[in-house]
Amino acid sequence: MDPSPLFYQAGPALPEISHAQGVYLWDDTGRQYLDGCSGAISCNLGHGRDDIRDAMLAQLDRVAFTYRTQFENAPAVALAKALVGLTHGQLEKVFFVSSGSEAVESALKLARQYFVARGEPQRRRFVSLRPSYHGSTLGALGVTGYHPLEAPFTDITIGSLKVAGPDFYRHTDADDTRHVARVLADTRTAIEAAGPDTIAAFVLEPVGGASTGARMLDRAYLEGIRALCDEYGCLLILDEVLTGIGRTGAWFAYQHYGVTPDLLATAKGLGAGYYPVGALLARADIVETVMASGGFQHGHTYAGNPLACATGLAVVEAMQREGVLSNVAARGRELEAGLKALQARFPWVGDVRGMGLLWGVELVADPVTKAPFPAEHNYFARIAALAKEEGLLIYPRRTLDGLAGDHFLVTPPLIIDAADT
Ligand code: PLP
């Protein structure tokens, strides 16, 4: 009988981590692991940091929780100002949450309420990519494009119009430029068929995460989607839950492309594994419209509590103080070179893609046809297990709907040094 009252995915019994420092973790048998995936791409500053602990303790000593409708909250105001500053004032309003799913959920609801407030209640649909991952709550799951996760819930989620994004590894168009043009044309056709005036927002990850193995978009595609949103009068929501707060070498991935969203969801790296904190960043006029219509009908008890915001602030300040973004760029180039050397050596390393310290490695049985390994060979799980055996943690994902290939993510903490990459 299972002695534990907890339930997760079925799987083998797991070791317990006894302690962690920097980019390393040690389990209770003394085995050391290099945290090559930052936990769930969240422990961006590594483990055991005194500065973050001190900031959290200082806030705990003052007060851990106050409720946002009852008291001012200085850490929340300071963190909000810092986040707005990271967008150079392009997104001026901040709504705090405790997770990535909540950040996406908040974006969807704010977009919907904005159009209700503007007298366009028919705008109730969302467009998103397949494959994609936007979270596990029903709204965020509704815009997620990954069949195995969606299947039990399709009847009860909001659903969305799912369109294909660019696939620079597998496309069969004449070249990348024509591929992007075709994908944008197909997207336009799908939106026209659905009725552009029913669309509230387009939701996408500027660089894919675990659902796509860091599949890249590009500037032309993002500019094209921005232009479609402007033409059809809907909002652009970027899901930067995973890419935000420095993961790609910019504070937000959209900054590489010069395409500004109307709403942006971020989480994971903001608390850096020390405390759950996420945020929805929004254009001021959207928020003002909603507030003037009676306020945003949304909120979670623990959202934006002082301890969460003090943690997030300590994370952002540490990154600024230490110039972490430059480290991401330098270590990212080394990691890319190392992964591409693997690709040159082993034909079954089909594709290596990503930016900053967000890299996906796709495995294929045949580099010409790009066919995946037959499921029964289980190579994929064996490689992930072997890496763990050797003391390296990577983030494996076997694609069950055949859309994104079998891949693993290599996403070490952003403070990793040259010796460890
Ligand atoms: N959006 C993206 C792009 C993610 O990668 C994730 C989590 O992996 C989420 C949303 C959901 O975040 P959370 O697990 O914190 O709810």
Second-tier CATH architecture of the largest domain: 3-Layer(aba) Sandwich
How many beta strands in the DSSP annotation? 14
Strands across the major sheet, in which order?
4-10-9-8-7-5-6
Q: What structural class is derived from the secondary structure elements?
A: alpha/beta
List low-pLDDT spans: none
| CATH third-tier fold name of the largest domain | Aspartate Aminotransferase, domain 2
GO molecular function: pyridoxal phosphate binding; transaminase activity
Family: Belongs to the class-III pyridoxal-phosphate-dependent aminotransferase family.
InterPro entries: Aminotrans_3 (IPR005814), Aminotrans_3_PPA_site (IPR049704), PyrdxlP-dep_Trfase (IPR015424), PyrdxlP-dep_Trfase_major (IPR015421), PyrdxlP-dep_Trfase_small (IPR015422)
Protein name: Aspartate aminotransferase family protein
Structural account:
It holds the Pfam family Aminotran_3. Keywords: Aminotransferase, Pyridoxal phosphate, Transferase. This is Aspartate aminotransferase family protein. Its cofactor is pyridoxal 5'-phosphate. One of its GO terms (molecular function) is transaminase activity. This protein is α/β, with parallel strands linked by helices and 421 residues long. It is globular and about 60 Å long. The chain has helices at residues 38-41, 50-62, 74-86, 100-117, 138-142, 147-150, 176-194, 219-232, 254-257, 268-271, 284-292, 306-322, 324-345, 379-389, and strands spanning 17-21, 24-27, 32-34, 93-97, 125-129, 161-163, 199-204, 235-240, 263-266, 278-282, 349-355, 358-363, 395-397, 406-410. Helix 3 (74-86) packs across helix 12 and helix 7 packs parallel to helix 8 (219-232). The strands form three sheets. Strands 4-10-9-8-7-5-6 form a seven-stranded mixed beta sheet, with helices on both faces. It has two domains: 17-48 and 323-410, Aspartate Aminotransferase, domain 1; 55-322, Type I PLP-dependent aspartate aminotransferase-like (Major domain) (Aspartate Aminotransferase, domain 2, 3-Layer(aba) Sandwich), CATH 3.40.640.10. A hairpin with a 2-residue loop joins strand 1 and strand 2. The structure holds pyridoxal-5'-phosphate (PLP).
